[in-house]
Please model this.
Amino acid sequence: MIERVTSNIYMVKIPLPQSPLKATNSYIIKGEDRNLIVDTGYNLPECKAALLQGLRELGVSLDVTDIFITHMHPDHLDLVWSLQSDSSKIYLSKPDLETVKLSDWWEENRHLFSRISGLPEDVLQEIIDRHSPRKFHQGKAPEFTTVEDGDEIKVGDCLLQCVETPGHSKGHMCLYEPEKKILICGDHVLNDITPNIALWQYEWNPLEKYLDSLDKVLGFEVERALPGHRSLIRDFKGRVMELKSHHQERLREILSLLDYHGKDAFRIASEMSWDMTYESWDQFPATQKLFATAEALSHLKYLDDKGFIDKKTLQQRMLFTKRH
Ligand SMILES: [Zn+2]
Model:
């Protein structure tokens, strides 16, 4: 299904089987000699078929098309493994490329993550078995062209500026067209769901970066924002303000859940309120438990860095406590 967004920008919905996100929005920008695809989908036959169908309907050939990836998550990136052609440039930020290059991200982060999250081993193992990137990154690795904040990409009458917006991933990038007042915003700002702000290593503070990145885009004049999932955003500033207050609310909720004995992030996540269809935490699939725990952790880290909470280590697990 193709939707025309402006004179030369089109949106194709790429189905994501078994994902609560339902679909990734892939944008195709038609140019004179070269075209640009922004974001792809999983490396699955269903995703590939949908994108190729969209390209066919628009009369766009992959041989004269470059690909821009807003961030390295598999629902945006992985399909490039089977789309790349020798003549296509594939743009990605440097911090995200470094994460992609880690040969086995899960294995490298597993012990680290289980220590800071308190996530039970069996839940972690189930996820690793299902999501090991080796399964999806088969064949020759693509050659990436790295982009930085302020870089420009010209496609037809669009002059797209790269805007680094870390938070949802370390090197998340949006594309801004100042003349048309369009922001292609990946998963930085979503309309109907809240972008997942997850912490996987305790050294960095994704929520702080994310809130800064929200303030950064608030300064842009945006008439239409084109997100990575679900519906297009008309009231961009309003939505950004909602996301900011959502996280303030979350921070307050987590503070109210802490006690003086200490709880690990997994337990705190299980006590938080989630906008989900499952009746109880026990019914959450393993992957959702993982994302919920990583989301709880990003807020705990933010509170910890601000000095609002304390933490201690007990039997190799990190516990968070109310400040004395
Ligand atoms: Zn996404």
